[in-house]
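User: Some background: our group keeps a shared notebook of sequences we're curious about, and every so often someone picks one and asks for a predicted structure to add to the entry. Today it's my turn. The entry only has the sequence so far, pasted here. Could you supply the structure so I can complete it?
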Amino acid sequence: MRLVVGISGASGVIYGVRLLEELKKKKIETYLTITPTAEKILEYETDFKKEELIKLASHYCTIDDMFAPIASGSFKIEGCVIVPCSMRTIAGIAYGYSENLLLRVADVTLKEKRPLILVPRETPLSIIHLENMLRLAYRGANILPAMPAFYHNPKTLNDNINFIVGKILDILKIDNNLYLRWKEY
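Assistant: Of course. Here's the predicted structure to add to the notebook entry:
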């Protein structure tokens, strides 16, 4: 399996870090690209450095490398996850504005009808945000807001992070036990 993981400039970069950790553990080939704002947020919100994040991925592509293999629809990937996904990135994808590699990969993923998972972390949402997400959902994107549930009885922040990462893996049909699933009575 081959996946693209994009991290854009929104709060919640820990979700992207945790996803990369889990994919590495499962020996899934990953292509990572990060926006400049995400790099700053990574250092602000976590103890991770960019170099450490890059080591979690199989491959790293700079945001301005429009000749990276992942920029082409003929390069086979099984999906793309942008986690977290800023509203700027959502707007760019919604309107086909592929000014950087991350936006281009998302555009290619949609046109090739491959799974595109966007994990927005903005709150509250404006009508513009909602319309952009609806526009993308109509075109086949999976919108998975970073909204933790509580039926699994989380005890720590990591439990909530794992819940969101587990949901991402579920959409990609990757087995995981990152959260307690709903059970029958």
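Suggested note for the entry: The mean pLDDT is 96. Strands lie at 2-7, 29-34, 59-60, 79-85, 116-120, 142-143.
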